[in-house]
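Design request, tokens follow.
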């Protein structure tokens, strides 16, 4: 496929660097990582050494300030090789962007330079056992007592929560206010009363740890509050508007990997004395897969460029891109398994892993159903 004409030379350079690292260093480790459910420590170190952690962070805080589209390009390349490693990579801006967008200068200088180098990792903790899609109903409480807050409650589905040096965590100062009571805090693992709970055993992205967090009279200094009291829901949603395009890019990477594998297999596999790629039924499947991957990529890049150009109001485009890309990844990976036939159902080939990894794309950072609700709401605005 032809290169994308709208990319700058700098964006092509960072994409090609990520592609080389992903295909030479990360891809060979993907299957063992999935099998053992191990943390991708070596992969994360490689990405940090190449400066890829800092591409969304301004130069003043140790980054390269390349923006959301560059982040999406890198996320796609890493996801092509290993979706678990890509999840870990995208969690860094998911947990760190709230600091960049809403943090004080002191908070930015305390955390962003270390996030840029990979000295510490970030996490984002919004969901709870009874507050998933209905994020405004969270029940973890934050009570101010002088120069600190006391947090109590349990969080769930926190990617990287057991490896993070800082967690952007959301609690409520008044549950009766729902979204208007939600407040954001920068919680560090050494704070009294903070504990990591159960690590989930997942169908896909097994190398990316997903854990529960428990707060039992957890003492958080007032200077670790992010924004004002009651501003947390705005912080959470604004962040997701900016991270959904890179998340959609991960889905594109998974879909592209599945398409590439299906194309190669269809050329080699012979039935009825001919390569299966010569059969119209297979050709139509491959054509549909190619169109879906390319279309999703263009939507993701459009949404990412809206973030980079600071056009504002990109909720609609971000949700569309994430939803289309997630649904595409599930369809394309399922079709890739079908192209492989019985072999696709075995672990001897990677397409079954692609399909397992793709499923989470329709769930995390807002389910495809929630995205459709957001899209309809935005479309129905006067």
């Amino acid at each position: 496929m032809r290169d994308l004409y709208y990319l700058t030379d700098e964006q092509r350079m960072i994409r090609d660097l990520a592609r080389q690292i992903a295909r030479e260093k990360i891809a060979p480790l993907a299957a063992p990582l999935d099998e053992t459910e191990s943390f991708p420590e070596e992969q994360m170190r490689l990405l940090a050494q190449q400066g890829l952690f800092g591409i969304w962070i301004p130069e003043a805080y140790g980054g390269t300030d390349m923006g959301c589209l560059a982040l999406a390009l890198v996320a796609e390349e890493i996801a092509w090789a290993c979706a678990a490693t890509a999840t870990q990579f995208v969690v860094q801006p998911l947990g760190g962007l709230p600091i960049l967008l809403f943090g004080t200068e002191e908070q930015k200088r305390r955390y962003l330079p270390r996030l840029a180098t990979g000295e510490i990792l970030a996490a984002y903790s919004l969901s709870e056992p009874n507050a998933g899609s209905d994020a405004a109903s969270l029940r973890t409480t934050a009570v101010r007592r002088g120069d600190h807050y006391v947090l109590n409650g349990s969080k769930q589905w926190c990617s990287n929560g057991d490896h993070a040096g800082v967690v952007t965590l959301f609690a409520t100062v008044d549950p009766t206010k729902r979204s208007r009571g939600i407040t954001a805090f920068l919680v560090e693992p050494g704070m009294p009363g903070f504990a990591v709970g159960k690590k989930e055993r997942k169908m896909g992205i097994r190398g990316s740890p997903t854990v529960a967090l428990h707060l039992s009279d957890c003492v958080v200094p007032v200077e670790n509050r992010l924004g004002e009291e009651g501003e947390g829901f705005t912080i959470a949603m604004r962040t997701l508007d900016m991270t959904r395009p890179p998340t959609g890019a991960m889905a594109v990477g998974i879909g592209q990997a599945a398409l590439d594998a299906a194309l190669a297999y269809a050329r080699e596999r012979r039935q009825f004395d001919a390569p299966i790629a010569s059969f119209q039924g297979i050709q139509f499947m491959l054509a549909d897969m190619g169109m879906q991957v390319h279309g999703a990529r263009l939507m993701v890049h459009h949404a990412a460029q809206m973030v980079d150009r600071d056009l504002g109001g990109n909720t609609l485009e971000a949700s569309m891109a994430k939803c289309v890309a997630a649904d595409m990844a599930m369809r394309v990976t399922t079709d890739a398994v079908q192209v492989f036939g019985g072999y696709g159902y075995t672990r001897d080939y990677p397409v079954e892993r692609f399909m397992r990894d793709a499923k989470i794309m329709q769930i995390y950072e807002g389910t495809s159903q929630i995205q459709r609700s957001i899209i309809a709401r935005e479309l129905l605005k006067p």
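Comment from the thread starter after seeing the answer: thanks! DSSP finds ten helices and ten strands in the chain.
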